[in-house]
Design brief:
The protein has two domains: 151 residues, TPP-binding domain (Rossmann fold); 74 residues, SIR2/SIRT2 'Small Domain' (2-Layer Sandwich). It contains nine helices and nine strands. The strands form two sheets. The protein has a six-stranded parallel sheet, with helices on both faces. Helix 5 runs parallel beside helix 9. The structure holds ligand BJW. Ligand BJW binds next to loops.
Amino acid sequence: MPPEPPTQPRPSPTSDTAAVRAISEARCVAVLTGAGMSAESGIPTFRGGMEALWKDFDPMQLATPEAYAADPETVTRWYDWRRVKCMEAEPNAGHRALVRLQAELTRRGGGLDILTQNVDGLHARAGSAGVVELHGSIMRWRGVRTGVDCPTPDGPFDAFPPTSPDGEPLRPGVVWFGEPLPTQAVEAAYEAANACDVLLTIGTSAAVYPAAGFIDIAAANGAVTIEVNPDDTEASDRVDIVLRGTAAVVLPELVERAFGAERDQ
Ligand code: BJW
């Protein structure tokens, strides 16, 4: 049998100029964000090491229904500690750059879809509209049996696991390993990945599915794919353009070069 012809590598102009051009020419852009998006807001990444208080626990072991069933106190203490940290955090310059990108694209008749794996709510707090929360929200807690949302306090809960007024144990409204993602969010993400001219993958290790698969869906539909990350990820060698740097530095520069310096309104 003749040898297989070498597969054509996708073009990879690792230049920010190519990224600026792709964004300036795009009508519809989608972004897939991960924990690195909020790192410069002071929220630790998922796989980037834990703060001292939790150094003896592995987040991969805590983010499962099995962990909650076995030790609801530890799991809910961890999530509540993170919930309070998220409430105290502020959106960073990267979140704000995406707010501007959405406004600029909308003004020219296109749009920006934000697909986030983050549970911290910082995109919406920055002012982005229609954020798709693929992995839920750490701010909403619900009954484990009824699934009914229960209000959360402004500070930490005072019992672990916390309970509803009826005494039902609560869990955070996030998606754990082995659980399905919210149907509406998945549908919206498929639509955005299929429709976009450019997909930016920002601050994610691209190790968790189905979220990471949206990069491939966009690429298969002809979108230019751009990674913003200080380090190599599982997607680095299959995106078109790699921008090595942090979200709060790269995104404002990218948006400013694509649309000009921001004017006072
Ligand atoms: C910076 C930076 C700076 C640092 N600026 N960047 C297909 C293949 C293989 C496996 C599967 C598959 N499909 C499904 C699976 C199984 C599983 C899975 O993906 N496993 C993998 C381990 C392989 N997926 C699931 O179980 C999903 N459910 C599912 O598929 O259900 C099917 C089903 C259908 C019907 C019925 C029943 C089931 C669910 C996945 C849920 C993931 N949940 C978590 C926890 C959420 C709650 C919480 O926060 O605790 O989501 S896990 C965790 O990983 C969290 C994150 O959202 C997610 C992704 O992590 P992320 O955001 O990429 O963070 P890091 O830390 O990994 O990376 C940070 C990055 O930032 C790094 O690259 C840094 O370099 C960078 N960075 N500073 C920019 N300043």
